[in-house]
Write a sequence for this structure.
């Protein structure tokens, strides 16, 4: 799909009623995925389905479907053989056997998103639009109550959901699981470094506004400043002497001691690409996502690359 | 501008090259009107102008351009290979190699770590006391070691204190650089121009101690007064933060026990040997300043045998070969001016214009050198001026050259090697850029005041 950046197609134009499968018998998720891929192959010629499916089964994606909503899962395929993004949808009123931890009756919709390999934005935009539709319980119920493909397609088309113009930072962020408060001490920070195995932790104030970040690197720099690193003979510090003072006072030392303000930040509404730029500029592996000044999430380099290059 | 040339676009490189070649050509043409008629003289003058413009426009390529300049001078038969070698001032280069090796060993042994610890562990430290200590220590260390070592280790102290107290380091970096540049004029060891002037003028370490050191000290006190007034707000903030930290019983950094005695003894012995070189030379009947050059080399040799496992590191990493090679090339190019009679002609013109009265010549030389050193590496200016001063033969002009070269470095942020090192360090650490204006508005005041003080004291 070679669209102009400002052109936002409707979600319903990415598939036809022919690309919808109503599953009535008991089928597992792999069978349904294969069926949907074959459906797309017949309609749009997406390439050798057996090969696509085989490499899918051997990949990490197989066991990690995209959770669109409580009742909808999706698999995204990046294919070098197509130039347009296409969807195929399977709907089962009885539920789909996912083989995962969900009960069979939990998942009613499975969507296959086939997107050109070199356009990560298209699969992500399609995913965003699908999420907006299938997260709506009323729409999901109306889809499940349909007894033919055209009815389902119309139910989706009537919503007029458009693909977003761009992917926002908020679309690809994850929750910041570990956060320190400005009133915490160095002692708390060290404890959290160790318990969370995370060496950089955001610091927020009482209103959840991001005020900085504490990281283990800063801690090491405080304990091993440059003037100590000049020493060739490290005998004076072999018993960890530079840490003595820090340990002695860690319970009454403010986090500011190891806090840095030189961090990568993006706004929730910024382009997702902005997060990548911020990380490269600051030479860090993560960017904090803010809503004004409030911390709402984090985008790690790993997550960013996975979203853009692989998922 | 002496900023990094890594980021220059092709267009900028072409434009700057054009400017450089134009300057060189114009200087060549002007030299025709200044009484220089021989081809060799015009070529030598043009190449010297080329090297000066290279330090101004292509800081990172200055050595490459100096190499090319030397090649042209040799190929153009301006000077012979023997004359090139004799002009390259190998004695000064060896002295600097010895000093840089010695400093590397002292750093390894923890001398500078110990000094920083002594300062950060001072009881009742206040903002004012910190500034006084930083200024005096920067000057003293520049006197004893060299300006680059001094600034590197003084900024480690400044960053440690500013990081711990969460204050803006910029004013304190500028203060430390100012102290270093002023202090570097106090002895022969402080600045490469000190040893260059000393060897050319036949001045000993003690001559510097008698004349240059007191002038440096008085100028430093003048500068310190300006600093304390100019940066009052930052100093008061520092005091507040220091008091708050003391109340929390927190120090300014980890303190460890270092056996500094060996390194302190080595430094004292080295300084003693260097300072008494003239006495030993007279007793032993050795040529003037021979022991000045030999002392750092001999001490470094002994230290390299003692710390033989680190000897290669000292020579390969602690000695600034890039800078030293540039100096050699620069001295050789400046030497070509002397060998072709250009400097004699300039000296004659200079005397025709300003006369021979030292009361007029001293401020002229001092302020011209200061203004030139503010924009071009001071050693370039001093190397150019030395043959002229030699021809005129007025002793006070050597000191004017020294103080102009050192104090002029404070005027702009590209005025001396210490400034450039400091800017690099602050940019690397804080991703922060000191603007030309930010530096200049303070630098020009300090530069003028210290130059006036030095000028008056030289004439007295």
């Amino acid at each position: 799909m070679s669209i102009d950046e400002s052109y936002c197609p409707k979600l319903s134009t990415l598939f036809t009623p022919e690309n919808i499968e109503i599953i009535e018998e008991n089928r597992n998720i792999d069978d349904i995925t294969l069926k949907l891929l074959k459906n797309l192959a017949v309609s749009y010629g997406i390439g050798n389905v057996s090969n696509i499916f085989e490499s899918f089964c051997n990949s990490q994606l197989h066991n990690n479907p995209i959770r669109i909503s409580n009742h909808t899962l999706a698999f995204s395929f990046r294919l070098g053989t197509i130039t347009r993004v296409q969807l195929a949808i399977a709907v089962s009123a009885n539920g789909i056997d996912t083989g995962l931890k969900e009960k069979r009756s939990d998942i009613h919709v499975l969507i296959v998103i086939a997107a050109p390999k070199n356009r990560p934005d298209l699969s992500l935009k399609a995913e965003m639009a699908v999420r907006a539709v299938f997260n709506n319980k009323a729409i999901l119920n109306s889809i499940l109550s349909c007894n033919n493909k055209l009815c389902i397609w119309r139910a989706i088309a009537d919503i007029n959901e458009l693909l977003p113009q761009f992917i926002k930072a908020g679309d690809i962020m994850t929750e910041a699981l570990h956060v320190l408060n400005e009133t915490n001490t160095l002692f708390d920070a060290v404890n959290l470094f160790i318990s969370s195995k995370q060496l950089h932790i955001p610091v927020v104030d009482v209103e959840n506004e991001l005020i900085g970040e504490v990281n283990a690197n800063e801690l090491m720099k405080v304990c091993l400043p440059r003037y100590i690193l000049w020493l060739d003979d490290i005998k004076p510090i072999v018993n960890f002497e530079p840490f003595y003072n820090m340990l002695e006072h860690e319970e009454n030392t403010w986090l500011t001691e190891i806090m840095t303000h030189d961090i990568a930040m993006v706004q929730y509404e910024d382009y997702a690409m902005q997060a990548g730029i911020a990380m490269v500029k600051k030479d860090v592996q993560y960017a904090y996502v803010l809503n004004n000044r409030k911390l709402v999430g984090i985008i790690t380099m790993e997550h960013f690359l996975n979203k853009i290059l692989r998922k | 501008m002496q900023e990094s040339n890594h980021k220059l676009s092709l267009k900028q490189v072409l434009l700057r090259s054009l400017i450089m070649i134009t300057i060189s050509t114009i200087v060549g043409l002007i030299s025709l009107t200044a009484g220089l008629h021989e081809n060799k003289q015009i070529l030598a003058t043009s190449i010297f102008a080329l090297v000066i413009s290279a330090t101004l426009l292509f800081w990172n390529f200055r050595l490459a351009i100096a190499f090319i300049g030397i090649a042209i001078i040799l190929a153009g038969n301006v000077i012979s290979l023997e004359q090139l070698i004799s002009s390259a001032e190998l004695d000064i280069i060896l002295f600097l190699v010895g000093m840089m090796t010695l400093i590397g060993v002292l750093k390894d042994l923890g001398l500078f770590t110990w000094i920083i610890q002594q300062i950060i562990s001072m009881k009742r430290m206040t903002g004012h006391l910190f500034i006084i200590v930083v200024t005096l220590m920067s000057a003293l260390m520049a006197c004893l070691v060299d300006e680059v070592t001094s600034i590197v280790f003084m900024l480690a102290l400044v960053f440690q204190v500013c990081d711990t107290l969460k204050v803006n380091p910029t004013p304190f970096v500028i203060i430390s650089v100012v102290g270093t540049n002023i202090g570097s004029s106090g002895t022969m060891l402080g600045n490469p121009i000190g040893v260059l002037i000393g060897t050319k003028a036949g001045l000993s370490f003690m001559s510097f101690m008698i004349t240059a050191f007191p002038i440096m000290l008085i100028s430093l006190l003048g500068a310190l007064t300006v600093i304390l007034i100019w940066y009052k707000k930052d100093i008061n903030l520092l005091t507040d933060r220091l008091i708050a930290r003391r109340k929390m019983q927190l120090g300014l950094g980890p303190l460890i026990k270092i056996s500094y005695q060996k390194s302190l003894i080595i430094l004292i012995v080295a300084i003693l040997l260097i300072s008494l070189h003239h006495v030993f030379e007279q007793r032993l009947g050795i040529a003037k300043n021979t022991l000045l050059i030999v002392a750092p080399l001999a001490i470094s040799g002994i230290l390299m045998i003692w710390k033989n496992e680190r000897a290669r590191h000292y020579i390969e990493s602690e000695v600034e070969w890039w800078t030293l090679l540039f100096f050699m090339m620069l001295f050789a190019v400046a030497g070509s001016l002397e060998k072709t009679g250009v400097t004699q002609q300039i000296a004659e013109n200079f005397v025709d214009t300003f006369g021979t009265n030292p009361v007029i010549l001293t401020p002229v030389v001092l302020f011209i050198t200061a203004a030139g050193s503010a924009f071009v590496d001071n050693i370039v200016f001093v190397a150019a001026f030395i043959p002229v001063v030699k021809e005129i033969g007025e002793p006070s002009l050597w000191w004017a050259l020294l103080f102009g070269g050192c104090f002029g470095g404070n005027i702009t942020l590209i005025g001396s090697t210490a400034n450039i090192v400091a800017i690099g360090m602050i940019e690397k650490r804080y991703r922060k850029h000191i603007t030309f204006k930010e530096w200049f508005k303070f630098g020009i005041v300090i530069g003028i005041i210290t130059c006036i003080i030095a000028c008056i004291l030289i004439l007295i």
